[in-house]
């Protein structure tokens, strides 16, 4: 039943009817030769003013996202699911059906059909039956182009469907001009490639696939009639999303119309009407939740790319325009995602924690010197599917657990932040050989009432005093992860310098409390060097990639190239890099970072590490650092070679109070190391460059002072006369 129209709608229709009826009558009263001359002149003038979209249609098209090989499809983005096909690849019954349903006089009018307009206006004014538009296929084509043209602003697209006399007259002028320059078949082909058929399908190729899973050349009479019937009210009549009974009623209407025009016989129409509705719906993947089947882990990377895209001015002045460019612009995007590295990363994270585990191991891999993101994996499905009660982010989530943002601030990464203290000290001129007799607990200048304070002052301690205490330099302080050495070193260089160094290398403080401390009180952030600020695997991997690239920071980049629908490259695929560290400072930090992973520094000063298995797994020059937060709430590891940096942090994304425990550290180290090995597989072995002697310093370790027990033991082995001499000398 047709919906009642408002008084304003009826008033507009009456006015429009009067204007157009007057025009039709006036034209009819003119001599034929004069009418011909006026039409020709008006048409030529209108054609000269045609928008570019009507001269050379820039119709909305899908954008395709591929992996870094340029062949592996990740997903597509579209508002308009369409693919152009030539008229020869569209079944004749489809062409006949659309003409019968929408414009029976298509092949006889000149773009506008005065008879049809008047018939529609009379019906609308009197209110009888369904409201009619009176637009020819050519006029509909004009309107469809202008309202979907991706080169026009949102306001311009809205204006293309405004209910005004001026807009309707302009549409008639454009349609008449097109009819003088394009053949009927060309107009019909263009119309069939842009018309909306419901259920997200634009154009007959997308529609035939969406509803029947076949090419438009293979449509039967009944199928063609059903599709042709949809364009009048696509959402209401769609047999997938709308009313199947109305869809069948419209199909019957189209079949009768085809019989009346002589395209088919009455018997053919009756036979087609009797056919049951048989659908074979197929869907083109759309967006990050519709990535290629079996690869829902790619969705996290896809989502990161989309967020990056929305920040690029090259795709529009506003976020809305950039979103429309992605969904309408027909771009071909070759991303930086490496399927092999991603596969290994996903296998490793799910080997540590299953998809349904409340704990997660997000891992990110970045290419030093370009910032290109090679992999983003976590033991979750990127999906909007419901989760069991009480499981907010598992096994399904679309939250950015790897890159951060939205509600994800990140996770504490523990001693991996000691890198920033070491870099700040090296930059301040302190060499790697800077020594300190690190105690088991170090009283600091910060007041504290926490349990374990030292006379009212904060005094951090070493996790394994027997192995960590004693005289340390940066090499073994970093290799053994000596807390008291690095808290002392941060005090020497200034905690604010350490915080600034982290920010310089891309660490973003997403938690409000962290951002406030960094902004207002960085000079008193003594615990910062122990990794108490939240971060993400992507930020952490990229920070270490900066050191791997000898001090060149590159913004994280998820693409290799972006090509527009016209084949032109968009200038957004190039790395955005800048030097943030002196190369020698970065080389010195790497020299110390060889110690944790079981390798040796260029100066032979490594004497123990917290992740020595990495050397065996990677099998080539590698550096890195472990990190454990307070009470082992999180466990992290970052490793890098000159060609890749990989970071992983084990945590509970929903409950920071849930301690993952120290037992998982070895598995995190193993997982990250295996991702590194895959990333460098087949690439030439590259070594790190040794730092200068000046920045290494003079690694002369003082002779350790023996304990009283050691002195007694040593003295018992001395000859009696020498022992008496030493004792007498001591009395003197």
From TrEMBL:
Chain positions covered by the region annotation Disordered: 684-732
Gene Ontology cellular-component annotations: outer membrane-bounded periplasmic space
GO biological process: cell wall organization; peptidoglycan biosynthetic process; proteolysis; regulation of cell shape
GO molecular function, one term: peptidoglycan glycosyltransferase activity
Keyword Transferase: yes
Alphabetic keyword roster: Carboxypeptidase, Cell shape, Cell wall biogenesis/degradation, Glycosyltransferase, Hydrolase, Multifunctional enzyme, Peptidoglycan synthesis, Protease, Transferase
Residue ranges occupied by any Glycosyl transferase family domain in the UniProt entry: 73-258
One Pfam family linked to the record: Transpeptidase
Gene3D superfamilies linked to this entry: Biosynthetic peptidoglycan transglycosylase-like (1.10.3810.10), DD-peptidase/beta-lactamase superfamily (3.40.710.10)
Keyword Cell wall biogenesis/degradation: yes
Biased composition (Low complexity): 708-720
Catalytic activity as recorded in UniProt: Preferential cleavage: (Ac)2-L-Lys-D-Ala-|-D-Ala. Also transpeptidation of peptidyl-alanyl moieties that are N-acyl substituents of D-alanine; [GlcNAc-(1->4)-Mur2Ac(oyl-L-Ala-gamma-D-Glu-L-Lys-D-Ala-D-Ala)](n)-di-trans,octa-cis-undecaprenyl diphosphate + beta-D-GlcNAc-(1->4)-Mur2Ac(oyl-L-Ala-gamma-D-Glu-L-Lys-D-Ala-D-Ala)-di-trans,octa-cis-undecaprenyl diphosphate = [GlcNAc-(1->4)-Mur2Ac(oyl-L-Ala-gamma-D-Glu-L-Lys-D-Ala-D-Ala)](n+1)-di-trans,octa-cis-undecaprenyl diphosphate + di-trans,octa-cis-undecaprenyl diphosphate + H(+)
Coiled coil: none
Penicillin-binding protein transpeptidase domain boundaries: 364-667
UniProt-listed InterPro entries: Beta-lactam/transpept-like, Glyco_trans_51, Glycosyltr_51/Transpeptidase, Lysozyme-like_dom_sf, PBP_transglycosylase, PCN-bd_Tpept
Similarity-based family: In the C-terminal section; belongs to the transpeptidase family.
Annotated protein name in UniProt: Membrane carboxypeptidase (Penicillin-binding protein)
Organism: Micromonospora viridifaciens
């Amino acid at each position: 039943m047709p919906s009642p129209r408002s008084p304003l709608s009826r008033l507009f229709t009456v006015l429009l009817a009067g204007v157009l009826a007057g025009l039709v009558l006036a034209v009819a009263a003119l001599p034929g030769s004069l009418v011909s001359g006026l039409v020709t002149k008006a048409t030529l003038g209108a054609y000269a003013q045609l928008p570019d979209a009507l001269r050379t249609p820039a119709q909305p098209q899908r954008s395709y996202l591929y992996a870094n090989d340029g062949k592996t499809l990740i997903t597509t983005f579209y508002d308009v699911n369409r693919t152009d096909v030539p008229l020869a690849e569209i079944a004749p019954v489809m062409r006949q059906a659309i003409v019968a349903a929408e414009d029976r006089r298509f092949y006889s009018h000149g773009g506008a059909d005065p008879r049809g307009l008047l018939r529609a206006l009379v019906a609308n004014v009197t209110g009888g039956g369904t409201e009619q538009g009176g637009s020819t296929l050519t006029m509909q084509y004009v309107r469809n182009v202008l309202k979907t043209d991706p080169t026009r602003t949102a306001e311009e697209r809205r204006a293309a469907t405004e209910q005004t006399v001026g807009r309707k007259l302009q549409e008639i002028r454009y349609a008449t001009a097109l009819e003088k320059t394009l053949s009927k078949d060309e107009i019909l082909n263009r119309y069939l490639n842009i018309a909306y058929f419901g259920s997200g399908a634009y154009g007959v190729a997308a529609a035939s696939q969406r509803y029947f899973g076949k090419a438009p050349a293979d449509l039967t009479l009944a199928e063609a009639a059903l599709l042709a019937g949809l364009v009048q009210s696509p959402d209401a009549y769609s047999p997938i999303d709308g009313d199947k009974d109305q869809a069948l009623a419209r199909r019957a209407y189209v079949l009768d119309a085809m019989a009346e025009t002589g395209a088919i016989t009455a018997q053919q129409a009756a036979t087609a009407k009797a056919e049951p509705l048989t659908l074979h719906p197929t869907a083109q993947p759309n967006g990050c939740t519709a990535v290629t089947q079996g690869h829902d882990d790619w969705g996290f990377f896809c989502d990161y790319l989309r967020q990056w895209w929305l920040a690029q001015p090259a795709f529009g002045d506003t976020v809305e325009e950039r979103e429309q460019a992605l969904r309408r612009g027909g771009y071909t995007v070759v991303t930086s995602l490496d399927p092999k590295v991603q596969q290994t990363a996903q296998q490793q994270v799910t080997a540590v924690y299953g998809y349904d585990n409340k704990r997660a191991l997000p891992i990110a891999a970045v290419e030093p010197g370009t910032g290109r993101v090679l992999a983003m994996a976590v033991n979750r499905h990127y999906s909007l599917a419901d989760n069991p009660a009480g499981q907010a982010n598992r096994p399904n989530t679309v939250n950015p657990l790897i890159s951060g943002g939205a509600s994800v601030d990140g996770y504490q990464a523990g001693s991996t932040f000691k890198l920033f203290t070491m870099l700040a000290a090296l930059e301040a001129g302190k060499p790697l050989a800077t020594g300190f007799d690190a105690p088991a607990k170090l009283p600091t200048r910060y007041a504290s009432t926490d349990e374990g304070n030292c006379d009212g002052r904060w005094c951090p301690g070493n996790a394994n005093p027997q192995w960590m205490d004693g005289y340390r330099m940066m090499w073994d302080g970093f290799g053994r992860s000596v807390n008291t050495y690095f808290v002392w070193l941060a005090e020497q260089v200034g905690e604010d310098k350490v915080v600034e160094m982290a920010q310089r290398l891309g660490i973003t403080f997403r938690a409000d409390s962290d951002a406030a401390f960094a902004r207002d009180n960085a000079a008193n952030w003594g615990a910062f060097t122990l990794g108490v600020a939240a971060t993400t695997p992507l930020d952490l991997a990229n920070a270490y990639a900066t050191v791997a690239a000898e001090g060149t920071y590159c913004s994280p980049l998820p693409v290799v190239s972006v090509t527009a629908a016209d084949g032109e490259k968009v200038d957004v695929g190039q790395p955005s890099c800048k030097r943030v560290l002196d190369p020698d400072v970065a080389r010195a930090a790497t020299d110390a970072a060889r110690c944790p992973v079981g390798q040796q520094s260029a100066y032979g000063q490594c004497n123990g590490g917290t992740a020595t298995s990495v050397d065996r797994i990677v099998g080539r020059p590698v550096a890195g650092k472990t990190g454990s937060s307070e009470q082992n709430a999180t466990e992290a590891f970052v490793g890098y070679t000159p060609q890749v940096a990989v970071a992983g942090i084990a945590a509970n994304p929903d409950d920071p109070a849930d301690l993952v425990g120290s037992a998982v550290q070895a598995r995190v180290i193993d997982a990250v190391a295996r991702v590194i090995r895959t990333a460098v597989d087949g690439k030439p072995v590259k070594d790190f460059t040794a730092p200068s002697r000046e920045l290494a310093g003079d690694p002369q370790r003082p002779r350790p002072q023996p304990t009283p027990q050691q002195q007694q033991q040593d003295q018992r082995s001395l000859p009696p006369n020498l022992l008496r001499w030493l004792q007498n000398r001591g009395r003197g």
